Amino acid sequence: MKVLIVGGGGREHAIAWAVAKSPRLEKLYAAPGNAGIAEVAECADISVMDKEALVAFAKEKNVDFVIVGPDDPLAAGVADAFLDEGIKTFGPRKNAAIIEASKAFSKDLMKKYGIPCAASETFSDPDEATAYLKSRKAPFVLKADGLALGKGVLICQTLEEALDGIKEIMIDKKFGDAGNKVVIEEFMTGREVSVLCFSDGKTILPMTSAQDHKRAKDNDEGLNTGGMGTFSPSPFYTADIDRFCRENIYQKTIDAMRSEGREFKGVLFCGLMLTPQGPKVLEFNARFGDPEAQVVIPRMENDILDVMEACADGRLDEIDLTFADNAAVCVMLASDGYPLSYEKGYPISGLEKFKGSKDKFVFHSGTKLKDGQVVTNGGRVLGVTALGPDLKAARAAAYAGTELIGFANKYMRHDIGKAIDEA
User: Fold this and answer.
1) What pTM value is reported for the model?
2) How many whole angstroms from its chain centre is CA 411?
3) Residues 6 or more apart in contact with residue 418 via CB below 8 angstroms
4) How far apart are CA 346 and CA 33, in angstroms?
């Protein structure tokens, strides 16, 4: 099977790493890929948003199967472009990817179908949003309606912070058109858990649980990022919680999307808050989370191509999805200054120390090859993932792994998985 992966981040590297192990793989391509993906795939310098060029490349290379990784191309209909040309594709069509592309849509869907979530209101007028805030008590959660690289959510502890947030999102347009609407939610308390689910539009198979760390600095301080590290499984996601979520959230959501004429095939990412009143949905994404993919995929025992093709074919009920009885922790190595301003182009050392390892991996998020040398090329540079018999062992191994890698402005959080100690 000839496979094309669309994307060039840590999520796509984790997918490529898994696909490359499949005995069914004949040839792997990636567009645009990165320095890590280039070790297992032939990379083509094509933008993830260039539908015509991507389809032309797939046809030229006689690609049998396409995997669309990131949110922006899914929201823009890149999966549709392949599917409309008869090329089998993993990833939801544009009309289903809206579950992530519009927070207002997902909130309306959850309200309509009785899927547990935070109470919320949606506004397209900043004055109306302001008036609503003044009639409620802090704290508040403000969400830009559209895609904002995982950074369009503001936690506001006071009314003043919330009013500044409305200005930032809706008037100053910090997140561009994503801020044309804003969703104002009640502030929920509890443990956060992420559960990624494979779906073929009818059947949904949840993967093992994970927990992300969004804030840039230790102790969950600093700005929101695309993710500074993660661990799997979550010790707080119990068998009882899993049963509740399978019945009241996962299957209900896929059924709701089908009822709306928006059949969802791909990965439904369910961000959950385990509140005192029970699990509630924080957000939905229409693809693998990043860095969640970097701890969930290494624990999966199935051939990932078998599972993804079953999703595309509508026969996921034939798959027995299994995960190893172990744990994984991923620590992101970032460029100092991320997510604001940072410098790129620094040579990276130590990557060769991970070659051939069965329990320690480096997934490239923001790298490129320059004159034969791997250099930094983004805010989040590398994800160092380690497996272990339990979370504490995996965490210790991941942090040991970070010491093997060097580059000039290397930055990381030192408390990824700290919640493990509280479990």
Assistant:
1) 0.92
2) 21
3) none
4) 19
Q: What is the sign of the dihedral through the CA atoms of 274, 279, 285 and 289?
A: positive
Amino acid occupying residue 369: L
- Could you tell me the mean pLDDT of each successive run of 10 residues in the chain, 423 residues long? 98 98 98 97 98 98 98 97 98 98 92 92 92 91 81 87 92 89 90 97 98 93 91 96 97 98 98 95 94 98 98 98 98 96 97 95 96 96 98 97 98 90 63
Token couple for 81? 């472009």
DSSP 167: I
DSSP strand pairing (182-186 vs 120-123): antiparallel
37 alpha-carbon distance from chain centroid: 18
97 touches 116 (CB < 8 A): no
In 371-409, the DSSP E strands lie at: 373-376, 380-388
Q: At 353, phi and psi to the nearest 5?
A: -70, -10
DSSP state of 187: P
Report the C-alpha gap between 406 and 397 in whole angstroms. 17
Q: From start to end of 233-304, where are the E strands?
A: 265-275, 278-285
Which of 13, 7, 17, 28 shows the shortest CA–CA distance to 71?
A: 7
* Residue that has been written with the tokens 């049998």 in this structure: 64
